[in-house]
Amino acid sequence: MQFHRYRASLLSLLLLAAAAVAQGEEIPSSEANGLTLGRALQLALEKSPELAADSLAVRAAEAASLQAKAWPNPELSVELEDFAGSGPYEGIDRAQTTIQLNQLIELGGKRSARLEAGAAAHDLAKWDYEIRRLDVLAATARDFFDVLGFQEHVHHSEESLELVERYAQTARERVAAGAASPAEQLRAQIALGNARLEVEKGRRELTAAKERLAAHWGGAGTDILSAEGDLTALPASLPPVEQLVEQIEKNPDLARWTAELESRKALAAQEKSRLVPDLTVSGGFRRLHDPGHNALVAGLSLPLPLFDRRSRGREQASARLEEGRARELGARARIRSEILSLHAVLESFHAEALAIREEMLPSAREAFEITNEGYRRGRFSLIEVMDAQRIFFEIIERYHLALVAFHQTAVSLERLTGTPLFESTPAKSPEDH
User: Fold this and answer.
1) Across residues 28-35, what is the average pLDDT?
2) Comparing C-alpha atoms, which of 251, 252, 209, 238 is closest to residue 407?
3) Which of 190, 206, 209 is CA-nearest to residue 156?
4) 256/262 Cα distance (integer angstroms)
């Protein structure tokens, strides 16, 4: 999915990536060597080491749920009596042999409680996987925007370096011609050194950002030649915060607490079922060597709950259930607070980016162009033109920092609400102003 068309939401791209993975398809990049956000999310879904571990946890919970359906195994016992004694019972000639099968019969609803607990644990594991999947995708999206931001930083740092190199050359020529003092050349050389350091710093930061992004699918940053996307795409307006708060029920963390409470209820029911002792039924065959006859044997056994009535276990299960209810309320309040906070941050970055794009950036560009032209005609000094250039590129840098922060905050909000925030129209890049 290409960003030069519109800024797609994380949730939309998540669905696209998930569908492509399920059908064995690939999401193409916008260019042969470029990595789009959709492709990055697809790679994270397919190859994330974290998701691989969590998928195994789901399989383990599913196996445990299936195992809970099994009935208790019967027991085979062989008993030998009246041997190795004294007198006529010396040796084993007069021994009596009993072969018996014992079968435990669960009472008190233990099996149904065990099945419910196993199913609830399986559901909980699946929710944990879904939450981890969203976390991985959100982190991948945020790191993708980081790469886009550092790419822009490197690009504009290199442009600034080219300008400073020309200024330094002009300064050398002016000093050689006696039209300027050596101090002007020294200032230009200092600015040139700073510009080169900034380019190198930006390239290192871009390399580190690519490594962070590729780590989400166990890859290497060197495999990412470039990221393809349009940071400047902004919506005309943001959804009201009340609308986002209404979507809180779609938050996967809250949905997980519903499964968590069901699991704890099932465990409490399982503990309660242990109040009723289980019955063991036995039956078998006995060989009587004196006088040499055979007979059947049968029996029942029932534990007597005199010393351990599982009261502490029931108290523990009940307390954990109440704890879960309290934690669900806490999670709801925390998520609501995070939505309110992130929405305020999103509004701030949105307003900052628009203000820079529509007001500050055009003025800074115009001032730089006027000063640059005046410098070529000898109306301004080198210090004045380099100061105008510095201000212009600082505003561009601030603009892209605000854009990166805006998109990353939007991803975090979409992660919290489980709902796409908006689709925005393309915006002009700084070069278009």
Assistant:
1) 56
2) 238
3) 206
4) 10
Alpha-carbon distance of 130 to 259, in angstroms, equals 12
Asked whether the beta carbons of 188 and 105 are under 8 A apart, the reply is: no
Average pLDDT over residues 100-120: 82
DSSP track, 136-205? HHHHHHHHHHHHHHHHHHHHHHHHHHHHHHHHHHHHHHHHHTTSS-HHHHHHHHHHHHHHHHHHHHHHHH
Q: How many CA atoms lie within 13 A of 158 on its CB side?
A: 8
Q: CA-CA distance, 201 to 154, in Å (whole number)?
A: 9
- What pLDDT was estimated at residue 10? 53
State the maximum Cα–Cα separation within the chain, in Å, rounded to a whole number.
136
Predicted structure pTM score: 0.77
d(CA 324, CA 382): 68
Pairing of strands 279-288, 293-301: antiparallel
**Which pLDDT belongs to residue 425?**
38
Please name every residue paired with 283 in a beta bridge, in sequence order, or none if there are none.
Answer: 101, 298
Which of 65, 53, 208, 74 lies closest to 136, judged by CA? Answer: 53
With cut-offs at 50, 70 and 90, classify the pLDDT of residue 9.
low
Q: How far, CA to CA in Å, does 80 sit from each of 13, 295, 296?
A: 72, 15, 15
Task: Tell me how far apart the alpha carbons of residues 380 and 370 are, in angstroms, rounded to a whole number.
Answer: 10
User: CA 59 to CA 125: how far, in whole Å?
Assistant: 9
Q: Is 108 left (phi over 0), alpha (psi -120 to 50) or beta?
A: left
pLDDT in tens, 177-220: 777 778 888 888 898 999 999 999 999 999 999 999 999 998 89
Per-residue model confidence (pLDDT) at position 11: 54
CA angle, 241 then 247 then 253, to 5°: 115
Q: Which two tokens stand for residue 77?
A: 């016992």
Strands 226-227 and 34-35: parallel
